[in-house]
Each structure stands twice: as C-alpha cells, then as structure tokens.
C-alpha cells in the first residue's frame, strides 16, 4: 500500500477508539500487535498471523480472551478476521486504513480574530488584583526583612554596649583595688625619723636605718619585689639580723686573710750562694 501513512493511521485509529466505549485495554493491545504484523508486511493485505506470536506480543495469556477480542475487533469494523482451522495454515487478517478518514480541522477566521483579541486585551480586574496582592506581599516581606535586620543590628549594638560597660567596670574595679593597695602601703610607709628612732632603740647605727629606708623606698616597699610590706618593724628586725650576720662574716674574712708570705722566723744570709 503505497499511500499508507502509519502516523495518520494510528491517529485515526485512536480518534475512533475515543468514541468507542466498548473497547478495553486488551482490545487496543491486540490491535497494536496486529498493526506491527501489518507494518512488517509493508502494509499489504491480507496478513497471515500466528496465534502464539500475536499473544506473546500483545501480552495476552488466555486463548479465550484472545479469540474474544479478535472477534470483537472484527465485529466493530476495525479489521476483517478470517480464521483458519488448519493447523498448518495461519489465519488471515485484513487491516483497514484509518488515515483516509482524517479530515483537516479548519480554524475559522472569527475564532482566530477572537483569539488574537483575547491575547491583546489588557489583564482583567482579577489579574490586576492578583498582581496587586503579589506586590503587596513582596513589599511586606521586604519591610519585614528590614525590620528583622534592624532588630538584629540593635541587639548587636546592645551587646557591644553591655560588653564595653562590663569591661569598664572591671577596669575601674581593678584601678580601685590598686589605689586601695597604694593607700594601704602609703599609710604603712614609715618616715625616716621613725626608722632612725627604731634602729637606735635597737642599738643600731643611724646609717643602717638610712640604708633600710632607702632600699625599700626604691622598690615601693615591696618584700621580695612582689608583696606589699605589712609590718615595717618586722622587716627592720630582719634587716638588723642580716646586717649582723653580714658584718660578722666580713670581719672574720678580714682577720683570717693575712699576708703570710713575708713572715719568717729565720734570718737568711743572702750573701751565701744558693
């Protein structure tokens, strides 16, 4: 069949199926399997079919269903079925060309003009209302985001301000502690006259009192260079003890180290030969 167009044929077939409520999926599957046989035969009628092969392609497992659907397609005018009762000869099927039944659908001029007018018309009130709602929602969303951002910035500024105030309080507290320690040290710092008087009461010379006062004045009256002095009289007693110990060691070292190399008990005669 030279003028066969299988695309138009299948389109015509499915147009016919749409309006036919007696068919079920099994009928359509069987017809498509027969159409494949017809296609392999170059759309020449009739075609010889094998029941087992057609059932395999159409996915029909029951012989009764196969024969029933094939007879229904024949009765409804989809094909012509000529069964063969000879086991050595296949049945014959004549396929009808449905592409000739298709008629091109003409689109009226009035409908084209109407469609063009519909596409060119401005949006309706409903569309405008939807657009307004979308714009309003978008504006509200932007405003909400701005408010959240401002709130976050405000919270961040508050946290920074609280942190600054906390650091300032800690710094002021530390300064107050240092000032208090300085006041305590200044209140406990003795005058030179008091130190001299105390050293004289302990039978120590004035020069040792001046040494004591000058030494601790130079390091801020810190014991060991770290701890503020709590009792200067106790520190003065330690100074006196260390002074006695130091002076005693110096006297012993002076008396013990005497030049002995020139002391001799024998008068030598240097005129004698060695």
Q: What's this, in brief?
A:
Helix content is 64%, strand content 6%. With 274 residues, the chain is mainly alpha-helical.
Layout of helices and strands, plus pairs?
Blueprint: H1 6-18, H2 25-40, E1 47-49, H3 51-58, H4 63-75, E2 79-82, E3 91-95, H5 109-120, H6 125-188, H7 192-201, H8 206-218, E4 222-223, E5 227-228, H9 232-256
Helix pairs in contact: 2-3, 2-4, 7-8
Description:
The protein has helices at residues 6-18, 25-40, 51-58, 63-75, 109-120, 125-188, 192-201, 206-218, 232-256; strands spanning 47-49, 79-82, 91-95, 222-223, 227-228. The chain has 274 residues and is mostly helical. The protein has 3 domains: 6-101, Arc Repressor Mutant, subunit A (Orthogonal Bundle), CATH 1.10.10; 125-154; 188-253. Strands 1-3-2 form a 3-stranded antiparallel β-sheet. Helix 2 crosses helix 3 and helix 7 crosses helix 8. The longest helix has 64 residues, at 125-188.
H/E order of the elements?
HHEHHEEHHHHEEH
In total, the number of domains comes to 3
3D shape: rod-shaped
- The overall average pLDDT, rounded, is 79
Structural class: mainly alpha
Helix content: 55-70%
How far apart the termini lie comes to: 159 Å
Main features:
single chain, 274 residues, mainly alpha, Arc Repressor Mutant, subunit A, 3 domains, 3-stranded antiparallel beta sheet, two-stranded antiparallel sheet
